[in-house]
Amino acid sequence: MKPCLKNLFLLPALIAGLGLMLAGQVTAQTSDGMALIPAGAFTMGDTLDGESDAIPTVSVTVSGFYMDTNLVSYSQWQTVYNWATSHGYVFDNPGSGEAANHPVQSVNWYDSVKWCNARSQQAGLTPVYYTDAGLTQVYISGDTDAVYPNWAANGYRLPTEAECKKAARGGLNGLRFPWGNTIDWNHANYYSQWTNGAPIYSYDLAFTSGYDPAFTNGVTAYTSPVGYFAPNGYGLYDMAGNVQVWCWDWYAGPPYPAGSPYLGGTDPHGPASSPDGYRLLHGGFFTYGLRCAKRSTDSPSFLINHNGLRCVRGAIANAVAGDHDFIAQRNKRRGLQPDSRSSRGADTLHLDKQFRRIASRIDAGDQRCDFRYTDDQRDFQFHREGDRRLVLDRDPGAGANGVWSPQCCLDSTDK
Fold it and tell me: What dihedral angle (degrees, nearest 10) is formed by the CA atoms of 304, 307, 313, 315?
């Protein structure tokens, strides 16, 4: 057996509150092409550019979740779409794309929600969206605003506005874009607006006016391949530009109604309705709207070539599926008795109390490495699933029934 030195090295940084997104430590993707966005608070909104419907800034706490590292590509859309239409799903439009590896475009909100359900069912997961409050009728056809989400389901869904805003910033706060406060064509596919021989916006550093020269035919602009530009701090591509993505939330400006993320709180899902009947979109596209704080809107039935999507999944449902079996097998190998106080709830990790120590024993035989630290403030656990190493934490004062929250997915090369 050998010590798990990487985890021992990370512990002081975790305790000191230096954050979990350490350079070179974050695994880019899960097996289904998603990145784990760590739980925690972030500053939502921005006053850099006087965005009237995104002020004042407010602290919002979001639980850990997984997000597609890339926009849904046209090829990916078609694969799920073809499966769905042969399994009872009915869409308003087939979607379109410049090429197989470009983002899908020309999809409305209703079709995006149905597509999420189809992607879930095709993958053998529980769909999120239903047409009845009892969550028995999976949403597969028609355009209805009476959509009931099962937030505990392990399937794919649209992100909330708060999730998009947190994910877009990549661990940074208060900046105009995911990478900083200026923009050019090395960072995103967008339209540079000029007047009198200079950019309208001082933060626009494009060398000429108009569309990105790499993605225009001289008359109109078009999308860039997914993943063409560098990712942000969470390993997400195209969080600004290319196509904007549908969010779950209804749109409402100030005065903000109940449920709005601009009132702060934890895991806001948006207001119950919109005075204009609009849903939110995020990220801007190959023309404008790329700033992190920008709030774009459209009717959920609206169809245009710059609207696309990317999916998320709840981290608890995704990361810890099967954890009970893993823990039981580990304990059996080590001759340990399970903790009778551990919760068996669906949203709680089934962890025994024998590992409340600075480091656990390491079973190098099956390449597993578990590490646990507990003090009066935090309860950290490092847990390996295949080639992923998950970092989870909870409030130790919550006792055995406390809910563990995935924080990030660490690179693991110490096999």
Answer: -160
- 117, 122, 126, 242: which is closest to 178 by C-alpha? 242
The CA-atom distances, in angstroms, between 152 and each of 200, 347, 394 are: 45, 8, 18
| 302-321 pLDDT per residue, tens | 999 999 999 999 986 554 43
Half-sphere exposure of 340 (CA within 13 A, CB side): 0
Q: At 246, which amino acid appears? A: W
pLDDT value for 250: 98
Residues 269, 249: Cα–Cα separation, whole Å:
6
What residue spans define the domains of the chain?
5-30+320-410, 50-316
pLDDT at 390 exceeding the cut of 70: no
pLDDT band at 232; cut points 50, 70, 90 = very high
Are 100 and 73 contacting, i.e. CB atoms less than 8 angstroms apart?
yes
Separation between Cα atoms, residue 349 and residue 127, nearest integer Å = 22
Q: Is 51 exposed, middle or buried (CB count within 10 Å of its CB: 0-12, 13-18, 19+)?
A: middle
Q: Are strands 244-250 and 307-308 parallel, antiparallel or unpaired?
A: parallel
Contact in structure between 127 and 158 (CB atoms under 8 Å): no
Residues 185-224 pLDDT 10s: 999 999 999 999 999 999 999 999 999 999 999 888 999 9
Could you give the count of Cα atoms lying within 13 Å of 128 in the half-sphere of its Cβ? 22
Compute the mean pLDDT over every residue in the chain, rounded to the nearest whole number. 77
Distance, in Å, from the CA atom of 45 to the CA atom of 57, rounded to the nearest integer, reads 5
CA distance linking residue 313 with residue 157, whole number of Å: 6
In angstroms, the CA 59 to CA 82 distance is: 41
Q: Indicate whether 153 pLDDT > 50.
A: yes
* Bridge partner list, 199: 194
Separation CA 237–CA 233 (nearest Å): 10
CA 233 to chain centre: 12
Dihedral (C-alpha) 189, 191, 193, 194: value to the nearest 10 degrees? 80
What pLDDT, on the 0 to 100 scale, is given for residue 381? 52
Class of domain 50-316: alpha beta
